[in-house]
Design a protein that fits this description.
The complex is a heterodimer of chains A (about 290) and B (about 325). Chain A has about 290 residues and is an alpha/beta fold. Chain A has twelve helices and ten strands. The longest helix of chain A has 14 residues. Chain A starts with a helix and ends in a 5-residue tail after the last helix. Chain B is an all-alpha fold and about 325 residues long. Chain B has one domain: MetI-like (MetI-like fold). Classes of the chains: A alpha/beta (about 290), B mainly alpha (about 325). At the A-B interface, helix 4, helix 5 and helix 8 of A face helix 8 and helix 9 of B.
Chain lengths: ~290, ~325
Amino acid sequence: MADQLQTGADVKTAPPAIDAPDAAPNGGPTSSSAPVLSTENVHVFYDGIPAVKEVTMDIPRHRVTAFIGPSGCGKSTLLRSFNRMNDLIPSAEVTGKVLYHGQDLYGSGVDPVEVRKHIGMVFQKPNPFPKSIYDNVAFGPKVLGMKVDMDEVVENSLRHAALWDEVKDRLKQSAFGMSGGQQQRLCIARALATNPDVLLMDEPCSALDPIATGRIEDLMVRLREEYTIVIVTHNMQQATRVSDRTAFLTVELDEQDNRTGVVVEYDETEKVFSQPSDSRTEAYVTGRIG
Amino acid sequence: MPDPDRQDRETRSRMRTSARQAITAAGADTESLALGRRSKSEAWKSVAFLALMLFCVLVALALLVTLIIDAFIDGSSRLNADLLTQFPSGVPENAGLQSAIFGSLWVIGMMIITVVPLAVGAAIYLEEYADRSKWYNRIVELNIQNLAAVPSIVFGILGLGLIVRGPLDLGFVAYAGSLTLALLVLPTVILASREAIRSVPSSLSDGSMALGATKWQTIWHHVLPNAIPGIATGTILAVSRAIGETAPLLLVGATVFVTFNPEGPFSEGYTTLPVQIFNWVSRPQDEFRTLAAAGIIVLLFILLLMNSFAIWIRNRYARQT
């Protein structure tokens, strides 16, 4: 399956890195040395006004990294710069470098479509396609031209997303008949079907009830074995439950009252929540602000 | 030491007061919670508004029903199989609509085949690719809106100069009529298709793009299938308008007394239903008026058939989503 990912790949990433999810099924600390993603002085602008500025950080491999912070601090904007989804917004512009296994995602000659094959995304609101459950999962491998046993890919992806047992008897039914939590897990299965390396999750539980949220959180912890996960969350408890590292972002106002997000602190989750080094982080995580 | 009696009285009086207050309070509550009770003027306004809207619907409906009934009364005596199978003739008893029906079907059928891909393509460009900050895209948009308001006879002149003669030089063939009508309804179908494409939620295309699908794959697999109901509605409107058009067709070769069916879109000589009806109406003999009324019924029936087909397509795709 990993071979198929290479077809037509313009991104000149190191092949071992792409093979890794299959090659190192145990994942874990062995491969945590080199970061999967690292940013160098990244700014994201909307209509020339910075929404996030001066972000320099490393996202470690096979870890869950959480972005927390108040509304409008640019968490989602930053996340969307990791798979070039910001390209779809005409007024958005990214400067600086986002390195994926050492290669700049914004370098010349990089095809954003290829980037998104390697870096999958799950959105805030479950957005299944108005198709059957099977077709939702099969869509990615189909359009990417992956020559795979589709039934097998669909089953594996749904098993990975802890959804198989619930839907195996109604794969041909519309995805809209599922509950919100099931729909979100279907969206995760859909993202996994293309065998990505990184999974970006933009507040994946904000539209779900606590039980469905719990299931997705369990899933994230399990998926960490094989994937690098970056999650944006409003929910600080969620960050402590699922993430290994946490970045706290906040809003700074400039002279013209433009709101710009900055990364205040980025460290092991435990440290960010128990001994934050910045007073703004402390105020936020102890609930005094935000 | 206070008098126990007096104390008792005072207590009772206090209780009465509080009870009264409670009742008053309850009364106030009942008033503010008066579910189902509305002020008379508000209720009257609602009824009046409903009546007004109903009146508007009835006026439109009454006109249509009157037209149909009137056409039926006038034309029922000629509404038979002969009308459909005979060709135009100077003798009213022998006159029929066969060549006009086939002409209309050819002209409108070829028009749909031509206009839908053109309009959908233009709509996709304008909605998905065009950068609105560029002046030429704004000019294109403005012109499409203006074209929708150009009188049909102007398109007839354009068709004569551009399609029948001029650069395309097709001659007076059915397809010249199709192309002229296609130009006429193109703005309508483009506007409807753009509306349909715009109403496809962006979360769908985001989901598709995030899986590594290209823009074209996203449009083909998600945007277009979900826009089909809206595009079908736009096409219904276009067909309804085009099937009744007479003036531009008179300029691009639709004639009367065509006693043969068009062999294809590029064979010379054709007529259409409205052109034939127009000719019959303008004749002095009463028999031809009867024929015209019967022709109107046939035209309405064909329009209904075509629209039913488009509605069937619309519902078929609407149910999938």
